[in-house]
Sequence to fold (71 residues):
Amino acid sequence: MHVIPEQNEALRGGGRGAPDLVGVTLLDKWRSVLKQPERYLLRTPTELLAGSGEGGTWSDWRRWFRDRYET
Fold:
């Protein structure tokens, strides 16, 4: 799993690295080399922490993600 902010279009779009991998997006490139490509997930911090709410165990981490990545 990769957790990448939605606004990071350069990385989500495949970036400049790994020119030999098949695919346009990061998701496509990673899945092209995996034995079980369906198991590779690309999520935003918001998706990862959905349902965690503002309180509880994940509150500090969620706040850090929100402040750092505006998500």
Observations:
- The first strand starts at residue 2 and ends at 3.
- The chain has one domain: 2-69.
- The radius of gyration is 14 Å.
- The chain has a mean pLDDT of 82.
